């Protein structure tokens, strides 16, 4: 027994000795060997963003090995380690914070295997320390850079340089919510490997370059929240892979080009808050993958019935409020069985509501207010109860609801009962009250797609059941 303990002690001692020898033997060399220039370039680059106090060689002597830097990723090329990804900004709890006075060090462009470069919430002081993206040297990263992203950097100002157009391997270019100005560089159209181009929430102006039509692999194009003007270039019809196109909140104008009907895979088209006109183009009908079509607040004009709406049978959200539409509401809208949000408010729609509209199985928000619809509303009491204020029919002076609703709470808001047509049902007082209340339903588009908030005891089950049926149906439609 004793000898066994001795032997195991010896084995243990030998093991410890070997371990120590292995550790000491390796300590002189880097566990993750790097070129000296690569290491220095990394330290200098980061120091430029976090401040001169940061002594990389002291704090992180082996940045691709046993002293990793948060946000830095490395990879092995011919037996040496190189930086492949650099994420600057407070992404994780222990990420390095950016300094107030940041500078792009020239050595950034010497990281020759850099694939991903991203900045989040780093340039945050537009008044005191505005910083421009450097104009030179981007071509040095052309052989490797696949993703370049700046998100939430209000202190990042100036123009996007045409040299970005040289980054031919780029798959993702995101310049989101920064203070960038000027025109969109035509050269961006050369980045033929781009899958995502997001330039939203800046101060970009001018027209959308025709060259963007060359981005044939693009899946997402988001230029929303800028001050772009002019017509949509017809070349956008060449972006046949596109899944999402968001150009909302700009000053874009004129007719939609007929070529957009080539965007057969598009699921989202958001053009709200622009100045598009010239009527609903027939070409919208060809975009049969569309799930969200949002055109609200544009002087589009024309008649609603000019499209065969049933072709767009994947639609879940259709918002055409305040688009200057005339004419009747066509029956074909009631074929959109997946529809959850239908906004037709503040137009000039006339005539009777198609009775089939009652049969939309999934609808949870329906706005018809601010038109000149006539006749009787023919929805069930349960429908009014379920929808609450998400059924809008007020401000249609010639519309009424069928009397006999059992509960006053299930009366459609702001609509008079049919029976008393000769009498003015709404007192002047209550009329003012209606007009005064702020029912700003458009700004809550997404919020209102949730469960009905106006739910009363017994209707809870009915609503739940309808939700389930909807889910069931939409799986098989
Ligand atoms: C950084 O640290 C190294 C090693 O501790 C030291 O030699 C060097 O002088 C330091 N550099 C600065 C700028 O403090
Ligand atoms: C459209 O989507 C389908 C199915 O996802 C895909 O097979 C097809 O290649 C896409 N079309 C284009 C032009 O990308
Ligand atoms: C609706 O049409 C009438 C008569 O054509 C016109 O006077 C009115 O300005 C239109 N309203 C809207 C909101 O387009
Ligand atoms: C609403 O339609 C009626 C006829 O249905 C018409 O007499 C009236 O002028 C229209 N009102 C507006 C504001 O267009
Ligand atoms: C209302 O709809 C019901 C069932 O869909 C139908 O029987 C009835 O005739 C309709 N009433 C009116 C006034 O359209």
UniProtKB/TrEMBL annotation:
InterPro entries reported in the protein's UniProt record: Leu-rich_rpt, Leu-rich_rpt_typical-subtyp, LRR_R13L4/SHOC2-like, LRRC69/RLP
Q: Which Pfam families match?
A: LRR_14 (PF23598), LRR_8 (PF13855)
Where is it localised? Answer: Cell membrane
What GO cellular component term, any one, is given? plasma membrane
Which residue positions does the secretion signal occupy? 1-20
- UniProt KW Lyase keyword: no
Name the domain of life. Answer: Eukaryota
Please provide the Gene Ontology terms (biological process) for this protein: response to other organism
Which keywords has UniProt assigned to this entry? Cell membrane, Leucine-rich repeat, Membrane, Repeat, Signal
Which residues does the UniProt record annotate as the domain Disease resistance R13L4/SHOC-2-like LRR? 167-296
| Keyword Methyltransferase assigned | no
Official protein name in the record = Disease resistance R13L4/SHOC-2-like LRR domain-containing protein
